[in-house]
Amino acid sequence: MCGITGIFDTRDRRDIDGAVLQRMNDSQFHRGPDEGSVHVEPGLGFGHRRLSIIDIATGQQPLFNEDGSVVVVFNGEIYNYQQLIPELQAGGHVFRTKSDTEVIVHAWEQWGEACVERFRGMFAFALWDRHRQTLFLARDRLGVKPLHYALLDDGRLLFGSELKSLLAYTDGRGGLRRDLDPLAIEEYFALGYVAEPRTVFRQALKLPPAHTLAIRRGQPLPAPKAYWDVRFTLDNPIGLDDACAELQQRLAESVRLRMISEVPLGAFLSGGVDSSAVVATMAGLSREPVNTCSIAFDDPTYNESEFAQMVANRYRTHHRVETVRSDDFDLIDTLATLYDEPYADSSAMPTYRVCQLARKHVTVALSGDGGDESFAGYRRYRLHLMEERMRAALPLAIRQPVFGLLGRVYPKADWAPRVLRAKTTFEGMARTSVEAYFHSVSILRGPMRERLFSPRFKALLGGYDALQVFERHAARHADLSGTDDPLALVQYLDLKTYLVGDINTKVDRASMAHSLEVREPLMDHPLVEWLATLPMSLKVRGSEGKLLLKKAMEPLLPAEVLYRPKMGFAVPLDRWFRGPLKQRVKDAVLGERLAATGWFDRKYLEHLVSAHQNGTRDYSSPLWSLLMFEAFLRQVVDGRKAAAPQVHEEATPA
């Protein structure tokens, strides 16, 4: 696991300032504290920070081919590199190291842009081919590893693992413009993150997962090109028993590949089904006890540590537990600088803490991330299927006016038993499937964002709605799958949005802040592809989600772990905002920094604060998103103001 960055002159071979490149590289020191190197040649500069995991002795980067004409900087792991080396050697390629990085340069020579189709792993890399005068950027299929880039006004292209490396670029002629993208901010307040391919800055982009970008010097910047997608066919005739046996084999293979390491290795163990399945599989493959780490909470409402301990006891793991106090909210400003753009998943705090704990004992940790998306574990999936059955009973032309009216007039009742909380159901019934699912996962739903934003900001949006992110992916799913199965649709949407923009972003930044590599066996792309062929009946049955994984793990895990209600990695925001953070929330949401943007309706901000703090409504999630946005403005935008060039007034906070 590493950090990469670089500068490429798309027009000519102008000199690259080595000091600027070094500053960009040093901004990501946390991603690779073991070694740091840069390579500069006319019109090109590559920087690399190394966290040594595989081939510690000879795996330094930037890494070159035999004649020095191809050079790569790489972040991630190619898990099947040992299988690719003999094939490439048979093609005449000579290896000087035993690293997975060297596989990339030779695979490029052998297969060109199609090399990424041969890689199994998590990766983001930049490769320069001097003979072809081509810069090639690539990102893994499920977006585990990040890659940002920006084309400057003078024709120089910047790239980096984190936005902070792009922000560190300034050479006296300017740098990345800091004007914020209103469309990205609309996405943030809807989803809690800025969705691919946008970043919060107008001039910078994220390379989408499963995409490459080949830039030839002297030619215009092309659009990224997709090389993979997941196709939900649901046509596999396999029965439950056979599917359980095959899943056990596939999971064992995925875990085994991710246990290759020359440094101490362990796993996160939350006590949930996914991480417990990974640990149980690791234990079956390891001669030594597995190192496991858990976070306990002093608030029993959020504490799963007893279930993690059950699994640890069963497999006699070297288990470490640290208790996080329920008032552990000191990370707000830290998180703002960590993510470089607004990010509103409050579980980033316990994730940061468990990575901090794990790094005391291991350098690599396996996690259970990705299981809910592929195995259909989220409770919202089952609610969506229930709504879909009701939507199917009436045409949209009837549902829209009838349920739209009911949704508007029925009171919001967060305090009431769930059976009486019908407002959301009525609102969902009045929408299309995609609109309803987007509505259900939004932090601030459409009517709330309509009230939140000022007329000035709405004018900047020009009618844009973050719903368009989901509609774009839904259209792609329809073209690929040929199925109208409602579960397949929402799984695909989450694989393209929530998994990438929220989960993978959270884990990458939190782990890299502590120089910890996290590997995700449940995101192995052959496993994801196979699961996408299985019928819905193997994933959700009645009120039980994640059916196949639970059945497959019954011989290996306690029923108390497999069949208990899902808890999640949550923090008590509602209580914080009425108690110890009451004044901080008020100061941030109603303070000068948000007001200076001119983007928010003051009266609605006052309503959010007062209604939450007097207990009449639970606005903890919207308030957290505002709190983190204000922290982003102070820590990232204002913190870099001295280095910023002139920016566009209409899109920049005042």
What does this protein structure show overall?
With 654 residues, the chain is of the alpha+beta class. It has 4 domains: 2-226, Aminohydrolase, N-terminal nucleophile (Ntn) domain (Glutamine Phosphoribosylpyrophosphate, subunit 1, domain 1, 4-Layer Sandwich), CATH 3.60.20.10; 240-376 and 502-562, 3-Layer(aba) Sandwich (Rossmann fold), CATH 3.40.50.620; 379-493, no CATH class; 573-651, no CATH class. The chain contains 28 helices and 17 strands. The strands form 3 sheets. A 6-stranded antiparallel sheet has the order 2-3-1-9-8-10. The chain has a 6-stranded antiparallel sheet with strand order 4-5-6-7-11-12, covered by helices on one side. The chain has a 5-stranded parallel sheet with strand order 15-14-13-16-17, sandwiched between helices. A hairpin with a 2-residue loop joins strand 2 and strand 3 (44-50). Helix 2 (81-90) packs across helix 3, helix 9 (332-339) crosses helix 28 (620-637) and helix 14 runs antiparallel to helix 15. The longest helix has 18 residues, at 240-257. It is globular.
